[in-house]
Amino acid sequence: MNNSQANKNIELGGETLFQIIEGGAKALEKNMDKINTINVFPVPDGDTGTNMALTLNSILDDLKDSKEEHAGKLAKKMYDSALLGSRGNSGLILTQFFKGMTQSILNEKFLPENFLNIFKYASENSLNAIPNPESGTMITVYSDCAKKINVIDNKDISYILEILSTQAIDTVKKTPTMLSILREANVVDSGAFGLAVMLIGALDVIKNKGDGNIDVNIPTPDFSELGNLNEDFLEGIKEEIWGYCTVFAIKGKNLNLKKIKDQISKIGKSTVVAGNESIIKIHTHVDNPGNVISLGADIGILSNIEIKNMDEQTNDWANNQKILTKDDSPAILSVAHGDGIIKLMKEINQNNLTILPIDKNIKLEINYLVQFIEKIESTNIIFLPNDKNIFESTKEIINLTKKNLSIIPSVSISSGIACIFTFEENSSIDKNIENMNQSLDEIITADVYKSSQNKFIGRIEGKIVVNDSTPEKVLKELIKQTSTKDSLVTIYTKIKTDTKKIEDYVTHDTNNDFEIEIIYGGQYKYDYLLSIE
Amino acid sequence: MNIAVVTDSTSDISKKLAEEKNINIVPLNVHFGLKTYLDGINIDSNTFYKRLLEGDILPTTSAPSVGTFIETYKKLSKTHDAIISIHVSSKTSATYSSALQASKEVDIPIKVIDSGFVSAGLAVVAIKVAEAVQSDKNLDEIASLTKSLISRTDIFFLLETIEYLVKGGRMGKARGLLGTLLKIKPILTFDEGEVNVAEKIRSSKKAIQKMHDLADLNGPYESAAIIYSTDQMEPLRLKSQLELNTSNKNILSLQLGPVVGTYGGPNVLGYAGIRSD
Fold first, then answer.
1. In chain A, whose CA is at the least distance from the CA of B72?
2. Out of A170, A206, A261, B200, which could bridge A273 as a Cys pair, Cβ 3.0 to 4.6 Å?
3. Contact B62 A42 (CB under 8 A)
4. Quick check: A533 and B170 CB within 8 A?
5. Of A52, A386, A439, nearest to A216 (Cα)?
6. Interface contact flag, A89 B66, Cβ < 8 Å
7. Which one of A84, A124, A137, A138 would you mutate to disrupt binding with B, by most B Cβ within 10 Å of its Cβ?
C-alpha cells in the first residue's frame, strides 16, 4: 500500500515530458553558435548546434497544440516528428533518443527510472543505426548516462536530471581522449556537448522552474585519464618489429599495474604498460593478439583496441627498400636564397628536396658542392642551379661525383621553383627530367635589380630590356612585355610588402586578363623575381 | 522483379531526367540561416547561386530525415517488389545513414548503397542502374551491378575557388592545400568517399587543359556526364572532348544543385564517366 502510494506520487505525465524537451530545445537554441564552433567530427561543417536545435524545434512545432497528457502517446508522437524533422548526423543520433523514449515510456504515466532507461535504448539504437559508430561522441553520452541506472536509487526526476547532466558534462570532457580528431583540434565533441546542453536545459525547467534559456560554457578537455599516460607510454615504446602490435586500454577498479605488466610481459615482447588504478594502457607485440586481449578482458573493460600486423609492415618496408635500390627514387638538390623562397620550395616538395642555401657574399665553391652532393642519400640526383653563373661553373661536377647527377639548366630561382613544382615522386628520373625541361620551355623568367648607377634594371631571360627610376615601373614594363591573356605571373618580392598595392599598380591600365600572384621571397639582389607561364 | 531506383538530390539529376529514367530523388535540405529549403524543389539553382554569390549569409545543408526516406520507400513499396537506393558518399553526408535506418522500417527488401561519390559520379551510376532494372534482374544482381559500376567510375572537378569547400568543411583528404603559400588550382576527385587532390596545377588555363587531358587519357568510357555550376562555356568544350572518348555519345550536362553548389561555388568544371569493362 505504502509502496504504490509512493509510486503514485512520483508518477509523471505527458506534461513533464514535454517540459523536459522544451527546456532542452531552449538551451540548445541559446548555445547553438557555441556548439557549432567546436564541430569538427564527423564532418567539420559547423552545424551540429543548428541541426540539434532544428530537430528539437520541429518536434515542438508539431506538438505545441496537441496537449497530449498520455506520456506513452506523446513519446510516440515525438519520435514520429523527430524521424521527419531531424537534421544532419547529430539530428539522426538525437532521433535515437526519441526512439528510446517510445521503448521506455509506454503508459499514460511514467516513472523517473523509465526516463533513465531511455539512455540505455538510445545507446543500443544508435549503435544499430549508425554505420560506423565512434566513441567520444553523443553515443558515449548515451551509454555513460545509461550506466547511471545501476547507481541511482532515487525516484526524483529533478535529482535524476541533475545526475545525468553532471555525467554528460563529465563525458563531454573526456571525449578528446577517445577520438583522435578531437584531440588534434583540442576540442570536446560538439554533439556530445549538445546533449549535455539539452539535459541542463531540461534540469533548469524541472528543478529550478526556469525556462531553459541558460548559457552553458564549453567544457575544457580533460586529459587526466590519458594525459601524462600517453607521454610515458610513447617514451616507453622501443619498437621491435615482430608479430602483431597490439594496443588497448583497460578500465576498471583497483587495477594492479605491476601484476598486469608481469602477466602481459610473459606473453608479449616490447611490452609497455602505463596508467593508474582505474585505467591502464597496454602496448605489446604478440604472435596471437587473442590471448592478450582475453587476458585484458578478464581484468576490466577494454577500449581503444588497435591491432597491426607488424610482419605486413615489415614486408611493405622491405618492398619499398627494393624499389628504392632498383629505381632509386631521385632527390632534387636546389640552390636557393631568401627565407621566403626556401620556405616555399620546402612546402612544394617535402620528401625529395634538399636545399643548398647560398649567400650573396660567399662564392659557391665546387668542392663544397661536391661534398654536399655526396652527403645526399639517393644515388640519382637532379640538380637545380637556379643561377646562370652557378649553372655555367658547375657543369664539370658530373665528373667529380660518384652520384648519378643530372643538371637542369634552370638559371633563375623562379624557374627552379617551376621545376620543383612539376616533380612527381612516382615518375622515373628520366620522366621527371623531361617534365622539368618542358616546364622551363613553357615559362619566361624576368628580374628587377638596382644598378650601380642607382637605376633599376629589368631583364627578361637574362637580357636587359628596360631601366627606370623605380623597381615598380620596371616591374610593370616587364609584365607588359611578357604576359598575354591567360598568363600566370608570379612575382617574388625582396622585402615583405603590401602585395595588394603592387598588384593594383602593375595591373592598372593593362588590358591583359592575366592571373597574378605575389609572394614574399626574401631573395638578395633582386627587388623582384618573376615567372610568366 | 519490379525494382524501384532511389537516389538523393546530390546526384544533380534534373526533375525531367529523373522522370524520363524513372528515378526517385529524395531531396536534401539547404538552409540560409534557420530558413530551410528542399534541394531543387522549392529553391532552384539559379536563385540559389544568386543568393550564394550576392547574399551575406553562407548556406548550410543537411541530410534528409529518416522519415522522409520512410515516406518515399513506403510509397514505392505499394508499386514495387524491391528498392535499390544509391547515395552520396557517407563520409560527406548523413544521407546514407538516414536511408539505411529507414530501410529497416519498410516491409519490402531495400538495398542501400554508399556510392562514395557526389553529383555526376552518383548520377551516371544511378542512371545506368535505372536502365538495368528494366531487364529482369533480381535485387542482388542489381546491387552487385551497382557496386561494379561504382568501382569503374571516375570523377574529376575543378573549382574556381576552394573557398566554399573549405567553409563547408568538405576538404576531406585535400586539407593539405590549406595555408599553402602558393595559390594552387587543384583538380579534385573522390578517393574512398572523400575529396582528394588529383592534380596540383598553378594556373587556370593549365588546369582546364589538364581536365581535357584527363578526359582524353582516362577511359574509354561507356557513359559520362559533365558538371557545371554557373558558367557553361568551358563545360561544353569539355563535353566535346569527352565525346571522343565515350561510347554513349549522349553525354549529360548536369548543373550542381543548391546542396552540392553550397560547396562547389561558382564556375565549376567537372565530369564523371563509367569506364568501359
1. A84
2. A261
3. no
4. no
5. A52
6. no
7. A84
Select from B151, B176, B208 the last residue of a domain.
B151
Tracing cell 605489446 back to the chain, one arrives at A284
Q: What's the total number of domains in chain B?
A: 2
Both B133 and B143 in one domain: the answer is yes
Distance of residue A533 Cα from the nearest chain B Cα, in angstroms: 8
Tell me the one-letter amino acid at B54: E
Written as nine digits, the cell of B17 is 531526367
**What are the helix (H) ranges across A11-47?**
14-37
Tell me whether residues A129 and B100 touch, CB distance under 8 A: yes
Grid cell, residue B24, equals 526517385
DSSP B181-229: SS--EEEEEEETTEEEEEEEESSHHHHHHHHHHHHHHS--EEEEEEEES
Q: Where in the sequence is the domain holding B209, given as residue range(s)?
A: 153-275
Q: What residue ranges define each of the domains in chain A, with the CATH number in brackets?
A: 10-206 (1.25.40.340), 227-314 (3.30.70), 328-428 (3.40.50.510), 445-532 (no CATH)
Cα(A467)–Cα(A528) distance, integer angstroms: 14
Candidates A43, A61, A532: best to mutate against B (most CBs of B within 10 A) is A43
> Under an 8 Å CB criterion, which residues of B touch A?
29, 31, 34, 36, 60, 62-63, 65-68, 70-71, 90-94, 96-98, 100-101, 114, 168-170, 180-183, 200, 202-206
Q: Which amino acid is at A152?
A: I
Q: Are residues B217 and B228 in the same domain?
A: yes
Of A84, A131, A344, nearest to B68 by CB-CB distance is A84
CB contact under 8 A, A43 and B203: no
Q: Reduced to 3 states, what is the DSSP secondary structure of residue B269? A: strand
Q: Which of A45, A54, A488 sits opposite B202 (nearest CB)?
A: A488
A386 neighbors A410 (Cβ within 8 angstroms): yes
pLDDT tens, per residue, chain A with 533 residues: 344 444 445 789 999 999 999 999 999 999 999 999 888 888 888 889 999 999 999 999 999 888 899 999 999 999 989 988 888 889 889 999 999 999 999 999 999 889 999 999 999 999 887 777 889 999 999 999 999 877 766 678 999 999 999 999 999 999 998 988 888 778 899 999 999 999 999 999 999 999 999 999 999 888 765 544 444 444 444 344 456 777 777 888 888 878 888 888 888 776 777 767 777 777 777 777 777 877 887 888 777 676 766 555 433 333 333 333 334 678 899 999 999 999 899 888 878 888 988 887 777 888 888 888 888 888 889 999 999 888 988 888 888 888 889 999 999 999 999 999 988 887 888 989 999 999 999 899 999 999 988 899 999 999 999 999 999 999 999 999 998 887 889 999 999 989 899 999 988 877 667 889 999 999 999 999 999 98
Of B109, B106, B158, B149, the closest CA to residue B129 belongs to B149
Beta carbons within 8 Å of B245's beta carbon, 6+ residues apart: B215, B216, B218, B219, B220, B221, B273
A295: closest CA of chain B, how far (Å): 35
Nearest chain B Cα distance for residue A44, angstroms: 5
Q: Give Cβ neighbours of residue A26 (< 8 Å, ≥ 6 apart).
A: A201, A205, A211, A212, A213
CA–CA dist B117, B10 (Å, integer): 9
Strand partners, A284: A246
Q: Which residues of B touch A488 (CB under 8 A)?
A: 202-206
Q: Reduced to 3 states, what is the DSSP secondary structure of residue A16?
A: helix
Task: Decide if A301 touches B, using CB distance below 8 A.
Answer: no
In a domain? residue B46: no
Whole-angstrom distance, CA of residue A288 vs CA of residue A283: 14
